[in-house]
Design brief:
mainly alpha
Length: 79
C-alpha cells in the first residue's frame, strides 16, 4: 500500500521544483495561478508526486485539480 499524499508533500515539491515559498499563506487552498505555478511547474509537481508515491494517474485528471488540497484528495482516493 502506498503512503497517503499530504498537502505538505505538494508544498515541499513546489518549493524545491517550482520556487513557491514553503510558508506561502494559504498555500494548501490557493489556486495554482495564485501561487504562480505555471503549466510546466504543475507538470513537474504531478510527475514528482506520482514517482514518489509509486502510482500514476491520468495526466488530465491531475491538471483539473485547482489546488494542493484537491490534488491530495485525488491521489488519496486512488489508494
Amino acid at each position: 500500500m502506498s503512503q497517503l499524499s499530504a498537502p505538505e508533500m505538494v508544498i515541499d515539491i513546489w518549493q524545491k521544483k517550482v520556487g513557491v515559498p514553503a510558508h506561502a499563506p494559504g498555500s494548501e487552498t490557493a489556486t495554482w495561478e495564485e501561487l504562480g505555478v505555471e503549466s510546466p511547474g504543475l507538470s513537474e509537481t504531478l510527475a514528482t508526486l506520482e514517482l514518489g508515491m509509486g502510482r500514476g494517474q491520468p495526466y488530465d485528471q491531475g491538471l483539473r485539480t485547482g489546488n494542493a488540497q484537491e490534488r491530495v484528495a485525488l491521489m488519496n482516493a486512488q489508494n
